[in-house]
Amino acid sequence: MNVGALPPARMRRLTDMTTFYAILMDGMIYASWLFLVAAGLTVIYGVMRILNMAHGSFYAIGAYSAASLVGWYFSSNGEANPYWSYAILVGCALLAGLVVGFVIEQGLLRFMYKRNELLMVIVTYALLLILEDATKLVFGVDPYFTYQPYSLLGRSMIGELAFANYDLALVGASVVVGGLCWFVLNRTHTGKVLRAVIHDREIAVAMGVNVRLMFAGTFIVGTTLGALAGALTAPSISVSPGIGVEVIVLAFAVVVVGGLGSIEGAVVGALLVGLTRSMAVHLAPEIELFVIYGVMSLVLAVRPQGLFGRTVARKI
Amino acid sequence: MTYIDRTGLWLIATAAILVAGAFVLPHWLTFILTLALAKALVVQGVVVQMRAGLVSFGQGLFFCVGGYAIGLGGNLLGIHDAFALLALGLVASVGLAAVIGLLMTRYRDIFFAMLSLALSMILFGVLVKSQTLGSTDGFNVHGVSYLGVTFDGANQKIAVYILTVVVSCACALFLYRSQHAGIGRVCEAIRENEIRVEYLGLSPRWILYAQYLVAAAVSALGGGLTALATGHIDPEMAFWTTSGEFVFIALLGGTMHVAAPFVAAVLFAFVRTYAIEFTPHTWQMILGLVLLGIIIFLPKGLWSLVSRNRRVKA
Amino acid sequence: MKRLKHIVRPMAVATIAAAAITAVASPSVAAENGKFRLGVVTFLSGGAAGPFGVPSINGAKLLINALNEGKVPGPYGQKGINGLEIETVVIDENGGATKQVEEFRNLAERHKVDAVVGYISSGDCLAISPVAEELKVPTVMFDCGTSRLFEENKTPRYVFRTGLDAAIDNIGAARYVVDTNRKTSAVASIQQNYAWGQDSWADFRAALTQLKPETKIATEQFPKLFQGQYGAEISAIAVSKPDVIHTSFWGGDMEAFVLQGAARGLFDKSAAILTCGESALDRLKGQAPNGLILGARGPFGAFAPKNELSEWFHKSYVAQVEMAPSYPAYKMAQAILGLKAAAEKAAAGKTGIVPEKEKVLDAFTNLTFESVSGTVAMSRANGHQALQGISYGEYRYDAKTKQASLANVKSYAGDCVTPPDGTTAAEWIKAGFPGAKCGN
Amino acid sequence: MSTPILETKGLCRSFGAVIAAKDINVRIEAGEVVGVIGSNGAGKTTFINMVTGYLPPSSGDIRFEGHTLIGKAPRKIIRMGMARSFQVAQLFPELSVLENMLIALVAAESPRPSFLNPVSTPARLRQADEILTEFGVERFRDSLVSAVPQGARKLIDIAMALIGTPRMLLLDEPTSGVSVEEKFPLMDTVMRAVRHHGVTVLFVEHDMEIVERYVSRVLAFYSGEIISDGIPAQVFADNRVRELVIGHGHGAPASEKSRSKA
């Protein structure tokens, strides 16, 4: 094998403005996708202290239902206004998240809130196994290829590089989702109550907060966020079995880096992971595979609670 | 102080029966048993840490190191003796654990779980990147001898099976003793209340470190025996779903008794084999339902069935 | 809850005990039930199920049913295999090599299958090969492409491969690029980061550099398997301004890459060659730009020659699955037909019996048989590896008929792209393809 | 003058703006029984936490039998001959009382627990039974700690601390969470054991009756400072103590949080 020509080329690229913009843009797009995927995970952990391994399955369910319904929309009436497909994407995600979240919370999780945090990880691991096959039973193993909403928006040139407008819109979507989460938590009454639950569950109960209701609501919101991430991703990929398992470790990494349970943390974690990865792809593709775990291990080694995590000293 | 109590005798007797079984049981059965017992050794590693309240979602790391030591020892160092190879894996694994254990013992709960997962995935990444080691395809293990004796075909598998039973029995005896010795009891105490352990004048980190090394050692033996049995190793051994399976089996058996992981691993192997055969499309779902059932109805694992019955009789 | 536990506990004990007893005691049913028992192993779950596993199992079921009814045309009119009905045991290939070795032993020793057909993953093939030799089970690898299969198993007896070595895909791809006069002063690569991707790229790069020494590599991208999002990689490739992009992507990853790349105009200025592209021929629906170069890992799928057998297969498949068969379906059919041909040759006219195993192996070695992809000669690796040609062609989509087709198809004969026995693909490429017999 | 068993010099500690200890100088001789009083947030628990190594002081020195404790982990301090109990009993809830005792016994024997020697030996079982009897909790021997009443838990907590044969014992509110009727019997039991083992004791207490009955000396804390130090009668007569400590009663409204930062 000849391994010539690469190092000098890379040196040149370091100083290249196009590469610089590309790193920034790719990093931002990837980071917003990561944030969409991780938001639901961190919300559920923040309020309920459940590290939800089945989060990836919600992503997959969102992706599958969106892909199949949008696919059906285009194949059943060819004359239809294609822009409606975006509404279908979001609608699907909301519906799927609502139904799946409600069923799982009411049917299973609410009986187990007294169990310890680690056991809940394993409960959700069991859920992951079940949902993987359930998704397969419902949607089959053939990949769903629902490209219309992706190619419909065309592309924009940024410098010398073309970017798909759909990807740019994804950045907007994640800003909206992040903004909504922030608004609900910081500017509404419900948010205030939620923050009380996050801060100290026992005191919140003592203050008369209906924790059960809060938990149910949070879980459904978290599930819906997962499904939404899947639905918004569906048009740009080929939806096939196993996509849920692939995203779960990524989402973990983002959330752990940012600090479990923190929305701000998820934003920063996503940006850090996204930009680092994009830098690796452009400048040192051979280390791309380790970058995410590397960032995660490094952050954990220096700051075990994550960048925005709180340490709670034990009272003795 | 090397007395062996009733449980010890039971373990030895079971091992003896299993060894005798090598000449009676069909080969496919001894092979499943070999893999299940080898896997159970890794599960023992998970269980040892679980008793101290730590759940490792990355025990595949040491499983993989043990397995690759067998393959690399043969291909690079020219070692072909099974015992020497197992020892090599053991040393490599404990050496690695000695280094990363310094970091790992600072973490608890979910952070321990996540960091162990990340470290295992880093090894996975390194191996996938190593084209000389066959990347994801891994490579085959050839020509292993047993103290100078080589076996062919089916006899070789019987040799691995007997070796696995013997190693498992030895590990079980050791782990049983340590579970009921100071270190085992203190581990439970750490799970219950780490601050109190510190205020009894003990170092929780030192004790967790020691157990981390023990877990790495038995996991490496499990990896080594798996490699000897299947004759093949690949990076999948370090992938997080492999580690997830070990946690699954650990919960299935429970942490109460040293025999539980062995029983659970054998049961798991059969459940999976038959699930794959009868419902090739939904075997994961069946596993998930079994796991949920265990958590809901038998939170202390299958072993609580046995101990419950015994208490009623007594 | 408490009362429930009282019921559940004894029930659980009883169930487990019963399961354990049946598990251990269930007799390994002898295969002498007048049927030919065939183990079929392919992906039923995971990312490889959709693009490869499902078409292959569809192909297997279709062919086996037709064989059992005696409806297959050509030289395969005899019912089942040698007049015996074929009975299948289907196993999911997902779960890693260790599990596959375990399942293979189950097939061999518990189910006592007469033969096994299967394996897509190269890792599984490598792990199974020594076990097949040890357990003496005739095993036909239908799809996996690793060159190491017969480099490691130098004197195969029980292992056969009716599919092609992946090196051939990439040697063929390099020849196609050269023969269609593409510039190669900047070649970009994007491969899934695992053995398949790494090996494919190594072979392609070596072959292309050998054929056109002025070739320069612009960038090499190795995203994670099943990553799905290739934004950064596409930018990096675009920045490197390549003449040619090579990828061995398959399945969902390939479709996603094509979609995302096309949306960003990646293929407007560069020629892209997809060695596994044909499996998505009917799925891309114009999302891939015309001119994309697709391969099918041999003369399969849309590259299959027109003959009685291939037309029958295509027609029956479309009738049953409502989709054109992609190359994994052809490759599975080829493996089963090869086995049938060998078994019937070994039986030498004595129908209605399972022919002697050793004789089947002798018959299979160096066998020439008719397949859905034309005539196949088992003439490499001491007669255990099929020798066939490879074809590449450009994607053409007709927006009016909504039909995809292939243009500028070039085929290379087996002798042109396959190393002779005794030399590895890498050595052969390096030496400048000595002895290659190419039509031009 | 002999070396005091415990001596602190200029001990300071703050949590952000909250000052929990300000220039604390204490000298305790072997054999004393010292009571620490003060309203919530006065820095009593912080003092114990600093002495036993749970919290590092911002400045100052702590000496135990002449050896500094600064920079030492709790386990090292315990090994030097110090022990403590906790405001909320710190036990191993899902283990039986006997197992709790056995673990404490094993810990007392060596800082490196054995990998092979069984914990429950006849000798240790006998010792555990003796201690449980001494503290009057032998009837809970085989119950899980989580099923044992509060008062008994406090006793078990103190019993565990005494197993390591310390020379000095710090008790953090030994009677908090215990019913009024149980308080005196509990303290009687504890003090009997303490005298039996010849241990120097310092305890934090809110109940002035208990302080009065058992101690030979009182330290009164107010917002991180010692405002009075002497025999009980003298301290209780001090006007500042009457105003700032006793006058406040027990359930003083000072913030729960700042006190329990530990």
Question: Would you write up a description of this structure?
Answer:
The complex is a heterotetramer of chains A (316), B (314), C (440) and D (262). Chain A has 316 residues and is mainly alpha-helical. Chain A has a single domain, classed as ABC transporter involved in vitamin B12 uptake, BtuC (Orthogonal Bundle). Chain A is built from 13 helices and two strands; from the N terminus they run H-H-H-H-H-H-E-E-H-H-H-H-H-H-H. Chain A has a two-stranded antiparallel ribbon with strand order 1-2. In chain A, helix 3 runs parallel beside helix 5. The longest helix of chain A is centred in the N-terminal third of the chain and has 32 residues. Chain A starts with 5 loop residues before the first helix and ends in a 14-residue tail after the last helix. Chain B is globular. Chain B has a two-stranded antiparallel ribbon with strand order 1-2. Chain B starts with 5 loop residues before the first helix and ends with a helix. In chain B, helix 7 crosses helix 9, helix 10 crosses helix 11 and helix 11 runs antiparallel to helix 12. By secondary structure, chain B is mostly helical. Chain C has 440 residues and is α/β, with parallel strands linked by helices. Chain C is built from 15 helices and 15 strands. Chain C has a seven-stranded mixed β-sheet with strand order 7-6-8-9-10-14-15, sandwiched between helices. A five-stranded parallel β-sheet of chain C has the order 2-1-3-4-5, sandwiched between helices. The radius of gyration of chain C is 23 Å and the shape is globular. The N and C termini of chain C lie far apart (79 Å). The N terminus of chain C is likely disordered. In chain D, helix 3 packs across helix 4 and helix 5 packs parallel to helix 6. The relative contact order of chain D is 0.19. Chain D is an alpha/beta fold. Classes of the chains: A mainly alpha (316), B mainly alpha (314), C alpha/beta (440), D alpha/beta (262). Chains in contact: A-B, A-C, A-D, B-C, B-D.
